[in-house]
Amino acid sequence: MKRMKFRYAMVCSSNQNRSMEAHSILKRQGFDVSSYGTGSHVKLPGPSLREPNVYDFGTPYKHMLEDLRRKDPELYKRNGILPMLKRNCTVKLAPQRWQENAADGSFDVVFTFEEKVFDMVIEDLNNRDHVLMKTVLIINLEVKDNHEEAAIGARLALDLCQEIEATDSWEDTIDDIVAAFEKQHRRKLLYSISFY
Amino acid sequence: MAGASRDQALSLLAAANNHGDLAVKLSSLKQAKDILLSVEPSSASELFPYLVELQSSPESLVRKSLVEVVEEIGLKTIEHSTVLLPLLLTFLKDDDSTVARQSIVSGTNIFCSVLEEMALQFHHHGKLERWLEELWSWMTKFKDAVLSIALEPGSVGTKMLALKFLETYVLLFTSDINDSERPVAEGSRRVFNISWLVGGHPVLDPYMLTSEANKTLGILLNLLRVATSLPGALTITVINCLASIGRKRPVHYINILSALLDFDPNFETMKGCHAASISYSVRTAFLGFLRCTNPAFVESRDRLLRVLRAMNAGDAADQVIRQVDKMIKNTERALRDARDKDDQLSSQLLVSGDLFKKRSIPLDNDVSANGHDLASKRIRYGSEMYMTSPVQLNDFRRDEGSVNGLPTDFPLLDGELTPVEKMIAMIGALLAEGERGAESLEILISKIQPDLLADIVITNMKHLPKSPPPLARVGNLPVSRKISSLNGQAQVMVGAPTNSLQSPTLPSQGPFSPSTIMSSVVPDTPSVNNPLDSKRDPRRDPRRLDPRRVAAPVGLSSTPTVEDTNTTLSEFDGPISLGKPNLIPVTVTVDNPSAPLISKMKNDESLESPLVSGTGQLTPDEEVQEGPEETAPTIQFNDSTDPTNSPIHTVDEDTVAINLSDDPVKEEADASSFLEFDHHSPVHSNTSASEDTCQDLPQLPTYVELTQEQQECVRKLAIERIIESYKHLFGTDCSQMRLALLARLVAQIDANDDVVMMLQKHIVMDYHEQKGHELVLHVLYHLHSLTISDSVQNTYPAVVYEKFLLAVAKLLLDSFPASDKSFSKLLGEVPILPDSILKLLDDLCYSDVTDKHGKDVRDVERVTQGLGAVWSLILGRPQYRQACLDIALKCAVHSQDEIRAKAIRLVANKLFQLSYISDNIEQFATHMLQSVDSHASDVELLQCGSTEERSEGMVGSQETSVSGSQISESGNSENNFPTQAHPSAQRTTTMSLPEVQRAISLYFALCTKKPNLLQHLFNIYGQAAKTVKQAFHRHIPILIRALGSSCSELLQIISDPPQGSESLLALVLQILTQETTPSSDLIATVKHLYETKLKDVSILIPMLSSLSKNEVLPIFPRLVALSIEKFQMALAHILQGSAHTGPALTPVEVLVAIHGIIPERDGLPLKKITDTCSACFEQRTVFTQQVLAKALSQMVDQTPLPLLFMRTVIQAIDAFPSLVDFVMEILSKLVRKQVWKLPKLWVGFLKCVSQTQPHSFHVLLLLPPPQLENALSKHPNLRSPLAAFAGQPSVKTSLPRSTLSVLGLTNEMHTQQSHLSSFNPSDTVRERCLEDDTSKGNMVADHMGY
């Protein structure tokens, strides 16, 4: 298989739905990809809006799966949480927090799926010491946090990653790539550049 | 050695240069590098020229690696790396952008370390070595080269890095005091900053460098202006670099801000750029600025907000503002506390500091995230501003390091500390770290588990000094209205987490406590040293002009703690001024501006009172001269006179202890403050002072002794207060803390019912929002932890625990409907379940509950609820599994049907599936099943006992099986049991049917889940009592239907049923075939059983419909032999048939088959057959006229004629008179068949003829004269009517003379006879007559004669 040039990170807020969907798809396509969440906790919908299920980052997906299965298998099956967690189990062990990922090394491209997350990633990167002087491209693709949109968003992210992977250096072409993508998919993107 | 490695390195380098394989080249280069790094720098440097040769390598990868090697070696042997540096410059212009990029990166790193080396060398040695100067000149060239990359067209990626270098360059050469704090806290590398440089550096002229930096910044700003011609990625990088500089170097902020504000991404002219991203990066930059708390940024806040709002980023901006404000507050507080404790606890620093770091890692997350830490760093800006001399700053840092690095002689953490104490020590250690610990402390505090924090608070309550801290007391005014003596405790409990910080110091401080409490309770006091936050312009801060402030740093060379000193001084003033208001005017210094804080803390009110005492005398002249700017603080002083009075009253009202304590405190304070002033020893003045003084002081009592009632009262009040405040709070922020506190308070309170009740109300009220539940769990877990920790000495917590849990559980049951899950949830989550709770559960499920009027109020829904709880406990709490299982099982044999049914459903459907208890359940059910036999033991004895008896029994049952199986009611089968053989088994059980059912239902339910239990049922059935059998019969249909006919265990039993179970088996088969076609397996099994073991055909009845004609006919006589009921059943099956084969026999065939039975051959009494026939006739709808006719016409042709043929004919004509014509034909046929030769039929024939007169006259007249004579003689009543009939002219002429003569009509009819005879009885009759060789030959002759 062709070796991938870049390391990718998919980031949403809880590292459950959007980032994991993208992670899963990209992983299948052979990309060197990781995924993270920027929230302070991992939150999953609960019986009502006011009672979300809250876990710490690092709690294995399997654990959540069992927990929710125990709590209300019907509900969580119906709203797609159990299937999602099952999928996540096959991708990696547990949700990871972006702000604590320094040990994971540097990424070339970071995808975020929400403006708030985009902001947080940029801010976090700005706060790190830029010792390596290695550029990192951060792209925000706005994706609603539901299963359907996540699937669509992940597809789009894959498209975009493939575009980026195809270039020699994204620095020279990112404007074109982004413009072409926006035109083709009628979706707005934002990108920024930071350093490691 | 050196030579060897040199040679090796040389050959490797040669390989790297010349080898054909790229991989070999790269690895050779790497190995060469390793060697170069391992040898002496001087000898390594000899090889550098060879290394340089590699620069012309055609492979870009080799060149890129070479750059990396150069960087690594250069950094290690910086002294010798001059030769290598030109490489970097060359590679900057490399065609391959990756090489160029790498050389920018490597160059930047070398650049920084050269700078650092230069600064340090000069600092240490006062001069620079030549090689370093040379290096620097290369670095300058490098910088120029990179700059040109940034400005000239080329690869965007390379240009980005060039821009990044420019940013770094500007940062390096822009003075940043602020930044000097960073390294230690973050563990990042220490980066050179121009502020390290002192004047007189031979090469590095700060002024020149700064202007270089400004120039570079100008270049960046300029790039922004021409952004329209740049690629978007570059523009964004420029913006980000500028923003970064702006954030990190406030000096440039204004410039950069205005450039960014002016920056108008003219989107139309920006070709090929992604405009949205560019403007977003501007937005991000602004938000970043907003996060900065430096005054310069604060000033532009409004402007930023306006711009951001215009960019539609108002929300984000507001959020940032909120974050920042919160952080500022937190940091301030922590900082203050840290400073207060700095001196006192510095000794603990090393030990506990490390401990903390370890602990804090997992705790630390939210706050440090999202760049909050950045902001909290910035916040210290203000306090550092006053230290203007860079040298001092530098020293400060070093000093601090060395102090921290010293091992101390105060190992405060002995191994026996509880977690709470450890935590307290940890906090203490952090406080001791001062500035650096503040940030971590804040994080720690915010992250401490509420439980632990509550413990800290509560633990602290114990240590409340006899004299409550004056300020706290004062601050407590609202509470004091209630019970003045309680102030101390109440205050601490209600207080914010900050207050808990005092705890660390207290235990270890001993006599110091009044003052330390003071300092911790008044954390806000030193806050005024802080940048006055965003809310106040620091330049308006009067303190700036305070002469002491200025004097301290100037006058002392080691000033780092000057501020702290001031702070501690002021702290001591608190108690002093309170106790003796006129004392020490000088020391109350900085505190005036604490006014702004008042709004923040409830307690702050208190702050003023001690201050006030001083302010009058104190207000320095300088401040007064400040003029109008001073007004605000001054007003404050005036205002605060009022509160001053009231606290004093409070003091008076308080216990005498306060007075007692006053004097020592005063003395101590005096001593220390004087010491401070005299020696100004910055670091340890406090400690030493206090040590000195306290040696002479009597030990102070540290407790206020409260009476039992008072204590209780206090606790109740505390609980009340917490609950009250809790009610209005819907956020979850503080609730954790509250819960933890409540838990501890409840634990301390005597298990007093009204307190528990009070809590209960609260619990129920909130239960559905989970808050009540949480509270309960908190309380219970806390109580439980107490129980565990001192179970031996003290059973009290256990008692409270039980009582509380029981009360809550009952409360939940009473308050919520049965469908509510709270009860179950509670039991599932509490730490332990005492017996009383299990009892409650048991009552709920099982015991009869009667209300006050003795009425049964059992609510079945409650049982469901209880069983639900039992279920979840069994699942979730192995410890109570057995107890809960017992409850469930008890309910499963409950006498009330409804409850039993519920419990059985639970046990069989849910619990029985659980492998870990299924055996228990099975055992129990089996036991119950056996218990229905009052002689269970006999049964066992019987089963394993003497084989003789058993074989006898078998014989008996086999003999009776036929008749026994006819009896559907099982009760009868009991009679079949060989009673003589087992007198004991023939018993009159005392159990009623319902009782039996109660006991066996569970077993039957289990059978559906585990069919091999069935065997046992069948085994005991035979010996079971009548009621038991009845109960079996009631239960078995459901069971069998559930199992279905393909259940292999069932088939197994059917193929080999135990003795005595035949009727049960029959029932089973009946059920199995009732509504469905039996499976082929079942049919085969049953047939096999019938053929081999059990000869009872009734067993086949249910199968009949599926059998074919050929299968049914052979067994048909056996079926007829059955009781009439069973036969009818069988008949129904036979006639019904299966859907695809049709009926096994048609009704006609059935009739024929019945008539085909020969009693002698088939061993059946004739009576049985006639009964069977009659039974058929009764079914008129099945055996219709047509059926009869058809059957009869078939049978009449049979030879020999069926025995019962005539009987059937007679019955047919009886049943259907309209068949008369048909019957006459039959009879005619019979005449032709010489029915008179068959005596039994002949009788019937005559009877029939007699009954059917006058229709039968024709037939009669067909009889030969002797038979006619015979007939008439047997039925004389026929004679005259027949004669009359025959006498009719039309008839008479057709009759033979012999016949007429029999009738006495011969004379008249004589002449016609011969000619009529030709029409008369057929040839066949005549032939038959001829064949006949009986004694009737003469009659034949007579006929023949005609």
Automatic annotation (TrEMBL), chain A:
Subcellular location: Nucleus
Enzyme class: hydrolase
Catalytic activity: O-phospho-L-threonyl-[protein] + H2O = L-threonyl-[protein] + phosphate; O-phospho-L-seryl-[protein] + H2O = L-seryl-[protein] + phosphate
EC number of this enzyme: 3.1.3.16
GO CC aspect terms: nucleus
Pfam families linked: Ssu72
Record key words, sorted: Hydrolase, mRNA processing, Nucleus, Protein phosphatase
GO molecular function per UniProt: RNA polymerase II CTD heptapeptide repeat phosphatase activity
InterPro entries, per the entry: RNA_pol_II_suA (IPR006811)
GO BP of this protein: mRNA 3'-end processing
Family annotation (Gene3D superfamilies): 3.40.50.2300
Family stated for the protein in its record: Belongs to the SSU72 phosphatase family.
Function: Protein phosphatase that catalyzes the dephosphorylation of the C-terminal domain of RNA polymerase II. Plays a role in RNA processing and termination.
Name of this protein: RNA polymerase II subunit A C-terminal domain phosphatase SSU72
Gene source species: Rhamnella rubrinervis
UniProtKB/TrEMBL annotation, chain B:
HEAT repeat boundaries on the chain: 84-123
Acidic residues bias (residue ranges): 620-629
Composition skew (Basic and acidic residues), residue ranges: 533-549
Coiled-coil region list: 321-348
Domain of life, source organism: Eukaryota
Ranges of biased composition (kind: Polar residues): 497-519, 556-566, 633-648, 957-990
Keywords on record: Coiled coil
A Pfam family recorded for this sequence: SYMPK_PTA1_N
Residue ranges of domain Symplekin/Pta1 N-terminal in the record: 96-312
InterPro entries: ARM-like, ARM-type_fold, HEAT_type_2, Symplekin/Pta1_N, Symplekin_C
Domain Symplekin C-terminal: 1096-1274
Region (Disordered): 497-566, 604-649, 948-990
Protein name: Symplekin
